[in-house]
Predict the 3D structure of the following.
Amino acid sequence: MCRYVSPAVDVTQFIILCTDKSLRDQHYNDFLKIYYKSLSDHLASLGGNIDTDFPYNVFEAQLKRCGKMGLCIAVFAMPLMTSDPKDIPMMDDFADSYNNKNEIPNFVNEKNSTKYHERMGGIIRDIINYEYL
């Protein structure tokens, strides 16, 4: 998943996938500020200047423009992330079982349905609340 994108895409995907709604409710803005400070420090170590190269208002605008990517990735990742690891096939087995069948496996089941719906519901509400969608 290496690609050249705005830092807003990476930070949004990371926070959306790796936190739950209650943690985001308490610390989302803190996470963004910590990330931005770290980005600023790293840019300075490379000879850049965050205030001219990537000011915070540009970062905020890019969060609004790119933030929906957090939802896009969550749609694919959250079923696996809420599954019991032993219920997830190894990639080789997965490819062999679904090769040329034109179907997408459903990893949301009785065991993880509640957790999945809770996490995805929180993600959708937050993406809307942050005005990313």
Notes: The mean pLDDT is 86.
